[in-house]
Amino acid sequence: MNVIRCLTARWATAAATMCAAFQLLAGTREISSPALKVRVDTAFPRVVDYQWKANGATLYGQEEALHEVAINGTNYTPKVRFSSKGKDSVTYVLDFPALQVEITVVMKVTDNVLEFAVTSIKECGPVKVMTMAIPNHSLISVRSTQPGAAFIGSQVGKADVQALVADRRPDAKPVPFTHAVLYDQQLAGSIDRKSTRLNSSHLGI
After folding, report:
1. Closest Cα partner for 8 from 96, 140, 156?
2. Distances (CA, A) of 142 to 61, 65, 100, 113, 185
3. By the 8 A CB rule, do 5 and 114 touch?
């Protein structure tokens, strides 16, 4: 069974002169396109932050380390093999020995887009992967201390939600949105979710 799911982060920049520090920390790797730098974790498929090359503006990903993947509703800690080919992509192979399952994740930067793709799932035992999720995974985030940090989102049959991050209380549980944008005075990012179903299997992040 081959299951594919892609997340695409699309970026827009405003006129600004912000110059943000972008340091490569231990345990991270930088991938980039002519427009965008993305710093990723080498121990787990996680984006640390993004930098727009034209003006140094920065948005963030999942700043705290992650270790678990939920398979069929149960959390497991995989053994991770990391590799990098070229300047624009990295690959993670997640091994779940107890399940006899291996999942491959690729992150690639093209122009102003980061693609997060689950490219294959190998099932070598009796367990069939019906659902997959990375709990508490923030592919994109902003800090309330960033000037103008705000959120706008759309829900089916409801009015759009728009608020400054500093003014919005955390939701008690995750709230689904059909479209969402996080932005500050320098940079904006959104997520384009695309999923493919094969043999009744579904992936979600």
Report:
1. 140
2. 8, 16, 37, 17, 11
3. no
* Residues 31, 88 contacting (CB under 8 angstroms): yes
- C-alpha 37/C-alpha 47 separation (Å) is 11
pLDDT tens column, 112-124:
999 999 999 999 9
3-state secondary structure of 167: helix
Q: Pseudo-torsion of CA 131, 10, 94, 43, nearest 10°?
A: -140
Average pLDDT, the chain: 82
pLDDT cut 70: percent of the chain above it: 81
pTM: 0.80
Place of tokens 């992936």: 203
